[in-house]
Design a protein that fits this description.
Length: 384
């Protein structure tokens, strides 16, 4: 009897709800070719139908698409460590964008610079006592001078002011006019990148007795959800927005995704709540005598990306000026010119039980004389 060990997962803020298993009669079938001695059996993934028509050799297969009924759910909890941002993140520096827009406007009266300017000189004659005699031109004796003195001069200043014209610039922390509005887009249900992770084991029994072996297929993969941002805005502050959605669709199989959580719009880093989880499938195989038996098991890895996009309306204080302008919105009145975009996607991932195939073909005496491997041949593979 095949056994599947896939525990209900609780990873940080995420919980996955297990699928309802099909009954054995709905999911399995087997057939054999009495004349050739070959036989096959198959157990299909949830939602698929087994097909085992008679033939030579017999062929067992699964028909239809798997039914991915597991929900991807985000619950509040501790914030996990931030991962490195993807290389394609587009960051908008909002303050720089405002300065660029303001630079395209006319010059404004920013300030008035005043200073002292020399406009001339003021001179005064200063009298002082004098007892010296100046020699007369004719060589006679001159009379004592009645007074002596000297001229003193000093600069004359006046205050003159000049208007300083220039461009307005951002002069303080940005202001959020309208909180972020985020919308999600329904995923492309026909474009899920399903990947099949398989294990194939061949066992050759050339003995006269049947044998029984238990084989295990274990895969360790990341499951959970992570927020990948492709457009962020640099605000100089933390700004969060809520992203919430629940989509369900039937495209050959019912698939549903659900998410709700806070996303910081001003940082590039991914927010990941993925965790590596080991999924294990076990099977007990009855190996008929003189038969080559091939056992094959597959898990189905599903990745569903849900895009989101939104915008934030921002205003900015303007540096001091003489025209009474305090906010950028006074000279950039259009809200569209003050609105900045955010975008990204929520990547949801999970692993589901796939199909199990058993094929057996008879061996001849000649084939059994060939050297046998010491261990069963095992192959791991991935396919889309």
């Amino acid at each position: 009897m095949r056994r599947l060990s896939v525990a209900t997962l609780l990873v940080g803020m995420f919980t996955f709800q297990p699928v309802e298993a099909q009954t054995a009669s709905d999911a399995s079938c087997a057939t054999k070719d009495a004349s050739a001695g070959a036989f096959c059996a198959v157990t299909c993934a949830n939602g698929q139908k087994p097909s085992c028509p008679a033939g030579n050799p017999p062929r067992c297969s699964c028909i239809g698409s798997p039914d991915f009924t597991r929900n991807f759910v985000l619950r509040r909890g501790a914030v996990p460590p931030a991962a490195r941002p993807p290389a394609s993140v587009q960051e908008t520096d909002v303050a720089a964008q405002f300065n660029s827009k303001l630079a395209q406007l006319r010059d404004y009266h920013l300030r008035t610079d005043c200073g002292q300017v020399e406009t001339g000189q003021e001179c005064r004659y200063q009298n002082v006592p004098c007892e010296s005699f100046a020699p007369p031109p004719d060589g006679g004796r001159a009379r004592p001078s009645a007074d002596c003195g000297y001229m003193t001069c000093s600069p004359v200043y006046e205050t003159r002011c000049t208007k300083v014209m220039g461009k307005l610039t951002v002069g303080g922390p940005l202001q959020i006019e309208r909180e972020p509005k985020v919308q999600t887009k329904e995923p492309n249900w026909n474009g899920f990148p399903e990947e099949y992770i398989g294990m194939r084991i061949k066992y050759r029994n050339c003995g006269p007795q049947g044998q029984s072996r238990e084989y295990t297929h274990a895969e360790r993969t990341k499951v959970g959800s992570k927020v990948v941002k492709t457009k962020v805005i640099k605000l100089g502050m933390e700004l969060y927005t809520e992203v919430s959605y629940e989509y369900a669709k039937t495209v050959g199989a019912k698939t549903s995704v659900k998410f709700s959580g806070a996303i910081e719009t001003s940082k590039q880093e991914e927010k990941s709540n993925e965790e590596e989880q080991t999924f294990t499938a076990k099977d007990v195989i009855n190996i008929a005598p003189m038969h080559l038996t091939t056992w094959q098991h597959e898990f189905i890895e599903l990745r569903v990306n849900v895009p989101f996009e939104g915008d934030v309306q921002v205003d900015a204080p303007v540096a001091t000026n003489q025209e009474g302008i305090s906010l950028a919105s006074q000279v950039i009145p259009s809200a569209a010119d003050r609105t900045f975009q955010i975008a990204g996607y929520v990547a949801n991932g999970a692993l589901f039980e796939g199909s199990t195939d058993l094929q057996a073909v008879p061996l001849t005496e000649e084939q059994c004389r060939e050297p046998a491997p010491s261990q069963p041949e095992a192959y791991a593979y991935r396919r889309r």
